[in-house]
Amino acid sequence: MFLMAGKQKTIARQAQMKGRGLHSGQDIVINLYPAPPDGGFIFRRSDLSGHPEIKGNPENVVNTARATTLGEGEVKISTVEHLLAASFAAGIDNLLVEVQGPEIPIMDGSARPFYDIIQEAGRQEQPGDRRVWKIDAPLLLQEDNQTVLALPGEGLRITSVFFGRPPVGNQLLDRTDDWVDILKARTFGWMQDVEKLRSMGLIQGGSLDCAVVFDEDGPRNELRFPHEPVAHKILDLLGDLALFGPVHGHIIALGAGHYLHNLLARKLWELAGKEMF
Ligand SMILES: [Zn+2]
Fold this sequence. Notes:
The protein is of the alpha+beta class. It has helices at residues 81-89, 112-121, 191-199, 228-242, 258-271, and strands spanning 2-11, 15-20, 27-34, 41-45, 53-56, 61-63, 69-72, 75-78, 95-99, 123-134, 139-143, 146-151, 156-163, 170-176, 188-190, 212-215, 218-219, 247-254. The chain has a domain at 2-131: lpxc deacetylase, domain 1 (Ribosomal Protein S5, domain 2), CATH 3.30.230.
């Protein structure tokens, strides 16, 4: 069921940032604009003729391999999840994201640069009521070795368990309504996968400036805090859930990735009658 929780918000002023696309290696400019109430997140490809737009809702996720890709018809924008996580943490409900390329730039691999630019742009309250979906019955989703359990609860609590290959090992993090510090957790990978992904034409813009890379001895670059990988998993879940909207409940994610996050967002969207954005 829906709860009313104050007014919707968008950003107060336009903001611009520039960075490299992780997969394409291209320099990409994004512009963030205020958006009207009840519009949610809209993504626009300003590099394509006609400037086509994609509505940010769970059903428009067309790929969840290594990142979340939105698409409508031939138009796609990938790696939307870190910008969405930052917007969610900043309490933004409506936002127009104009991208001059096929993916949101990776920046430093975390959501923090997006949060900082939203803070700089400021927030503006809007006339529409902010509706929060309250989970009122348990929901269990499983796929391969991944599990998501969503339970009723006060506020939004996320318990995430990440089953990492050595030397990362298993990590657990539990958070309630407190996301800002985990936004600086970077995406991560393993050295042995880097060459394989490069040969597939992926991560052309990847470097130790935009990811934590582990080899058998440990991280190749310094961690920002212990358990950075599982903190990044929570960040990814927030971003994927933001395509649905604000939620109250306790979400327990065990080894879950973008596919299962999106499945949860789709289920919630169905339960809500596809009314959230
Ligand atoms: Zn991520």
